[in-house]
Amino acid sequence: FEYAEQMSVGRSVGAPVIAAISAAGNVATMELGSRFANRVPQRLLDRVLPKPGTGPSDEVRERGHYTVETYTTTTTGARYVARMS
């Protein structure tokens, strides 16, 4: 069994920079989050983080999208792709 995740940032000239910044941000978030998450005072988190029930409007959610693609190869070599959008 193998598992991997990937994110496409397009094919523009700036794509490698965007990918590098995104990867560095993910690493920093995981590293700092795992070390300091329990040390941040709850009152500070309550002031900084979104309140329950606040989030994107219905209109904003309707305009957004994502696609999840799952690839597999069977033991006989047949390949399948499942796309969820």
Number of domains: 1
The string of secondary-structure elements, in order, is HHHEE
Instruction: Report how far the terminal alpha carbons are from each other.
Output: 24 Å
- Helical residues, percent: 40-55%
Overall residue-averaged pLDDT value: 89
Structural class, from helix and strand content? alpha+beta
- Major beta-sheet overview: 2 strands, antiparallel
Beta-strand proportion: 5-15%
Low-pLDDT stretches: none
Q: Can you give a write-up of this model?
A:
By secondary structure, this protein is an alpha+beta fold. The chain has one domain. It is built from 3 helices and 2 strands. It has helices at 15-36, 42-48, 58-63, and strands at 68-73, 79-84. The chain has a two-stranded antiparallel ribbon with strand order 1-2. The chain starts with 14 loop residues before the first helix and ends with a strand. The model has no long low-confidence stretch (mean pLDDT 89).
Give short descriptive properties of this protein:
two-stranded antiparallel sheet, 3 helices, 2 strands, extended
Give the arrangement of secondary structure elements.
Blueprint: H1 15-36, H2 42-48, H3 58-63, E1 68-73, E2 79-84
Antiparallel strand pairs: 1-2
